[in-house]
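Hi F.,

I've been meaning to write this up properly since the lab meeting, where we talked about keeping a consistent format for the predictions we share between groups. The idea is simple: the sequence comes first, exactly as it goes in, then the structure tokens exactly as they come out, then a line or two of notes. No screenshots and no reformatting. I'm using this chain as the first example so we have something concrete to point to.
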Amino acid sequence: MLDRPPSSLEARGTMANPKYRRILLKLGGEALAGEGGQGINPEAAEKIATKVKTVKDLGVEVALVIGGGNLWRGEAGTKSGMERATADYIGMIGTVMNALVLQDALERIGIITRTLTAVEMRAVAEPYIRRRAIRHMEKGRVIIFAGGTGNPYFTTDTAGALRAMEIDADVVVKATKVDGVYDDDPKKNPNARKFDRISYIEALNRQLKVIDSTAISLCMDNGLPILVLNLWQDDDLTRAILGEPVGTIIGP
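Output, unedited:
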């Protein structure tokens, strides 16, 4: 017997009807980071895997894109004189490492997963082929897109927007440590106002740091909504997939 009121998820029970049939979940590399925001914390990977499983159990097809900021940031290399393209390729390799960690965590809880990378590493992951990715999803597998777009000068946010459109996803879920988009930094300004919804144009004009401007422009040109939420806040990811008012929608 519950000693508390049932949550909205429990109240829905088995009658849950997801708002989205196919999502692309964009994670920063920091989601896997250990102490100090660096390295890989296996426990963080397990927590992410559990959240993905909860969404997948609703019948939602899930693809992921993960960054590599916990292992390498190109700015650090370019500031010391490294060529930008070289620095970006190192970052792409870092995303493959993160993808393999997530793949392992997902498969250990019974979710068949495939990692597809734009930078070919056939010994550890499949090369990215659009139709193959879609086929994996149709078979009920979770797919992880690694290697960014395969090109320097593009962020993994942009890779997430691109892959979402290629697989015909219904939404890009930008998972962060903040519960949405604000008109100022909520950590510095307690009076910062949170948006429930904001247009692509306003998001670009405000030069929001929560997601790359190229990714926003790409989604705007193709009418793909972006949902920004806090991955670590209770059941926010699942609630958002069920259509509850969570986070901030960047859209038309």
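Notes:
The chain has a mean pLDDT of 91.
The radius of gyration is 18 Å.

If this format works for you, I'll send the rest the same way.

G.
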